[in-house]
Amino acid sequence: MKKSFYILILISILALSVLFILKRQNESTTIIYGSPQIKADNNFNPIDSNLIKLQKSYPDFIIGIKNNTIIWKDSSTMIFDDSLEKDFDELLNNPDVQDMFTFKYTPFIVDTPCVNFDPGRIRNDEFFKKMYGFSKNEVRANLDTIIWLPSTLNMEVLITKVNGVNIQLQAISNELDSLIMYHKYVETIGGTFNWRKILNTNRLSAHSFGIAIDINVKYSNYWEWDKSYSSTIKYKNQIPIEIVRIFEKHGFIWGGRWYHYDTMHFEYRPELL
Ligand SMILES: [Zn+2]
To answer: Among 202, 189, 196, which Cα is nearest to 266's?
Structure first.
């Protein structure tokens, strides 16, 4: 009787240990993003510092911020944080504006991104449509021509004039113009404005809004092109950091800082810098 009692206790302990290990494994494979710590306390409703960054970055459009709301110049409002917890795919496919800040973008450094670390790759399309245009024709009406590498290549490039993106890209071009040793990376442009979906997705590319530029495809790497049967992505880059830093100085982020790398790609996202 006594012996079977001890065996029962032992089996119970073993069963509980197995359950505990299984639960831990399950928790470690599903990463949930969002802001549960804020939702847990209804009295705690600070103005997110990222909300302030948005207003500072886009003063021609955002005239106010109030708790969890963006107030646009046309008096319309947009919720900043939808309070939903999301896994990585949901962040890409159904992001609110706050989700765009999930991964912190660090400019100027030399680094290799870790798994799924894609700062700036999450975009709320409605947010960008509001500023740059709701359709291909609306975006196109806001485009301006800048001169790419004026004293050497002297090539016309289309980019939006909204938020002064054209002025920033011209400044980048002027700086690159004098750096002859880097010209091979930038003297052939992969493209700027193009109203299109991102390859293999239903999401609009940043090129749709006229805020992005692809530099020379010949010296670039894109994770979709390098995809193999292996589930892990092996980071590749040929673009010198000196070029990246010039873009970052002028409000552009670089797709080479993403785990899902796109090293030819730069887009105007001053709120992340
Ligand atoms: Zn691109």
So the answer is: 189
